[in-house]
Design goal:
Layout (H helix, E strand, L loop, with lengths): L2 H4 L2 H14 L19 E4 L6 E9 L5 E8 L3 E8 L14 E4 L4 E9 L5 E9 L2 E9 L14 E4 L2 E8 L5 E8 L3 E8 L14 E4 L6 E8 L5 E7 L4 E6 L14 E4 L1 H4 L6 H4 L7 E4 L5 E8 L6 E8 L14 E3 L6 E9 L5 E8 L10 E7 L14 E4 L10 E7 L5 E8 L6 E8 L5 H12 L7 H14 L12 H7 L8
Antiparallel strand pairs: 1-28, 2-3, 3-4, 4-5, 6-7, 7-8, 8-9, 10-11, 11-12, 12-13, 14-15, 15-16, 16-17, 18-19, 19-20, 20-21, 22-23, 23-24, 24-25, 26-27, 27-28
Helix pairs in contact: 2-6, 2-7, 5-6
Length: 506
């Protein structure tokens, strides 16, 4: 299942280089704001004081630059994409001083972005006209200009739905994850070939529609399994957590759950989840990530017991879709760390198997007002809170100090050096609006834990892959290297993969 990894010299180098980065010594504590980033770890980009600006998704480029997408609202909502340098400053070589805004004549929002193999960006979201929502896809060149070779002058509209996530497959095809509304809401996967045209060999003429039986099954997140199958997760209108797995050819995977679908109802999770539509405007409300051993971590936020308190709820599934009883309590982890209302936005997994959850924390009662603070929680691989992170497992950040609860966390990326990058929004101090924001936290990686993660993943290999064992041994040798000089200089895979160009932190 790792054959694609082994065929790519740069991927091998990146993995070895990651282990080099794990060994860099540091004095600060995990969860501290990174003082080398922005204003002591925080960045708030003030736009037009009359406009509301938000980031929904961020990605990290190989050169360390950061790309974020979302929307800006003045008279109508318009798509915004921004590119930042590694230190968080705007990359002025992109768009207009680092930012590009696109108005397609209606109300549009961007919710996801990927970088394509040619360096272009594909953006997905929605366009609303007279109350009706359509899937919006936009492709832009690496400098921020619309790519007029895509769709109609860079824009492709698919009727009756809205997109929430994108996934780039190893063969260059693109999965668009969306909710479609014909008679009721269902998951939908739309597949484009590398040129941006509909791939009619996938599913039923390029589309797959998945119904879980509810009136409103709202899609939220995509992920790729190690052997190339596609995971999609979301929420039902009653708050059930929904997961489906699709084969690369576009069919429900009968080896997963019941006919390719898993429904984690409140009776399974032990708490009633909040309905997807009721919190969709506050947060994406679902996280999804795949571990190196093939297990699946999925999460949301729900009320605990008979109280109105919302907390983060994480579940871990075996590759066949059954709950993993070694995680949390019988497969479900609920950690009420803040004693406030916490709504999940995104999940990521560190190289050592620890899980990072990004959320928004509110002190108001449900239904929440739009104001909160950025919340980051870290879990051990068994689903318990990692008490070495922040304030006993969690960090809450007020992006503009002293401004109160006017912030939200939307998206998270784990950098190659282990640090945690979060995108979202914060307050415009001069107006009752919000502005796009980035926050970076220091985070170390447990080297021994990372080796354990790799070793456990070998059990999944069929046939065996001796080259991966050799790679692990090679990475293990870096642990014993004298740390009085940059490890990169003695890491042959790093040099072979990247030449003389170093990676940040090495």
């Amino acid at each position: 299942m790792f054959s694609r990894l082994l065929s790519n010299k740069q991927s091998i180098g990146l993995l070895s280089c990651t282990f080099c980065l794990l060994l860099a010594p540091g004095l600060a504590a995990d969860g501290d704001l990174d003082p080398s980033f922005g204003d002591n770890g925080r960045l708030l980009f003030i736009g037009d004081i009359r406009a509301t600006d938000e980031l929904f998704d961020i990605l990290l480029l190989p050169d360390g630059k950061i790309v974020g997408v979302g929307f800006t609202t003045f008279d109508t909502q318009d798509v915004v994409i921004a590119r930042f340098n590694e230190d968080g400053s705007f990359d002025t070589s992109f768009g207009l001083n680092g930012k590009a805004v696109y108005d397609f004549g209606a109300s549009e929002r961007a919710r996801a972005v990927i970088v394509l193999e040619d360096g272009k960006y594909l953006i997905a979201g929605d366009q609303r006209v007279s109350g009706d929502s359509n899937i919006l896809l936009v492709r832009v060149d690496s400098d921020g200009a619309l790519d007029t070779s895509f769709g109609t002058e860079g824009v492709l509209i698919i009727e009756e739905g809205y997109a929430n996530d994108l996934l780039l497959l190893p063969d260059g095809r693109i999965i668009v994850g969306a909710t479609v509304d014909v008679n009721d809401d269902d998951f939908a996967l739309v597949v484009l070939d590398p040129s941006g045209r509909l791939d009619t060999t996938f599913g039923d003429g390029g589309y797959v529609r998945v119904s879980f039986g509810g009136t409103e099954d709202e899609f939220r997140r995509l992920a790729l399994t190690l052997d190339g199958r596609i995971l999609a997760a979301g929420l039902s209108d009653s708050g059930d957590l929904l997961v489906t797995r699709i084969t690369p050819s576009g069919r429900l995977d009968s080896d997963f759950g019941s006919g390719g679908k898993v429904i984690l109802a409140s009776s399974v999770l032990g708490v009633p989840l909040g309905g997807g539509s009721s919190i969709a405007d506050v947060s994406e409300s679902v996280g999804l990530a795949v571990q190196l051993d093939g297990k699946i971590v999925v999460g949301s936020g729900g009320r605990v017991g008979t109280t109105s308190d919302f907390d983060l709820i994480l579940a871990r599934l075996h590759p066949d879709g059954t709950l993993d009883s070694s995680f949390g309590a019988d497969g479900v982890s609920i950690e009420d760390l803040t004693n406030q209302n916490d709504v999940l936005a995104d999940l990521a997994i560190q190289a050592d198997g620890k899980i990072v959850a990004v959320a928004t924390v509110f002190d108001s009662e449900f239904p929440f007002d739009p104001w909160g603070n950025v919340l980051v929680q870290r879990y051990n691989s068994d689903g318990t809170a990692d008490r070495t992170f922040g304030a006993n497992g969690w960090v809450m950040t007020d992006i503009l100090e002293g401004s109160g609860e006017n912030d939200a966390g939307r998206s998270v990326v784990i950098q190659p050096d282990g640090n945690i990058l979060v995108g979202g929004y914060g307050p415009d101090a001069d107006a009752d609006t919000t502005d796009i924001a980035l926050v970076r936290y220091l985070s170390s990686i447990d080297v021994a834990g990372a080796f354990d993660v790799l070793a456990s993943s070998f059990e999944m290999l069929s046939p065996s892959q001796p080259a991966l064992h050799n790679l692990l041994k090679q990475a293990a040798r870096h642990v014993t290297v004298n740390s009085d000089a940059p490890l990169y200089r003695r890491c042959r895979p790093c040099r072979n993969a990247y030449g003389r160009r170093s990676t940040k932190g090495v």
